[in-house]
Design goal:
alpha/beta; Nucleotidyltransferase, domain 5; 6-stranded mixed sheet; 5-stranded mixed sheet; 11 strands; binds 5'-O-[(R)-(carboxyoxy)(hydroxy)phosphoryl]adenosine; binds zinc ion
Length: about 325
Amino acid sequence: MKDVYILGIESSCDETSAAVVKNGRELLSNVISSQIDVHRRYGGVVPEIAGRNHLLAIMPVIDEAINKAGITKEDIDAVAVTYGAGLIGCLLVGVSAAKAFAYALGKPLVKVNHIQGHISANFIAFPELQPPFLSLVASGGHTSIIAVDDYTSFNPVSATMDDAIGEAFDKVARILGLPYPGGPEIDRRAKNGNANIRFCPNLKARADHAYSFSGLKTAVVNYVHNLTQRGEEIPVDDICASFTAEAVGYLVDTFVSVAKERGLEKAVLAGGVAANSYLRGTLAEACKKENIKLFVPPPVLCTDNAAMIATRGYYAFIKGEDVADLSLNAVSNL
Ligand code: KG4
Ligand code: ZN
């Protein structure tokens, strides 16, 4: 059978990325141009600035991905692009570049849901992984449990009712005066701290499996404000360790209870927060206890990248699904 080469393009937030994936599983290139340094001085992603920087980066990043893959533009069978969810001005840059590329070279265009892309990163990291499995998506914009019944069949089981877990990490980091992005910084500081503060004693898995992180986030913010008002020292490392333990414990307990209820033996972790060392360890332990085989991609495939988009696009392409024409538009809330 002829090899299938997919060019993936991702620009939903602050990473401009292009990748080439062969036959859905073999990563030939994954170029990621991060804007973290640009946004750090603002303490978060400024959408307009992000959009402009995507525009500057997108063509060189695509060229580099094709060169690194050792193929030519003509070898590409289809272009897969993130069309949502994300920041609209950012998504539009990737979608426009993908449309232009597809039109100029006469290649099919495949639209990809960003969250489904995050989950599909596992297909690259683990060549033996096959659906069905249950996935836990923990990112800056989403916290969801999604049942993957087939390569292109993603069925939401539960989601957050308010903040995403990554959003809570970033806001807690901000109140503690830690640099953006807060998640990795909290991860580092938590290792030196004691998880000796209980912010939300009642935080536990809900019967409907829905998540809510805003109460925990607010409790940490209030705790820090109270100490500041009393002129007391802020135990940053202990707060990082305690917040992480509470957020991750709750995330994992809920996920494992859904997996047990559904009798699923395979689970995957996905999204930027999947890079968190405490989450990786805690989930691994909980799954082992329940005899659930867990797949966790390496950190570079957890945060935003185009390889995951190319893989998701590959499975749609070979089934003739999600093929888009030049009227494709970006959708900020999918
Ligand atoms: O998936 P992602 O790259 O972008 C979205 O699609 O949202 O996730 C970004 C989120 C940010 O909130 C960032 O702080 C968090 O992932 N993150 C982490 C870690 N690395 C990234 N959170 C906790 N620990 C980490 N090591
Ligand atoms: Zn993402």
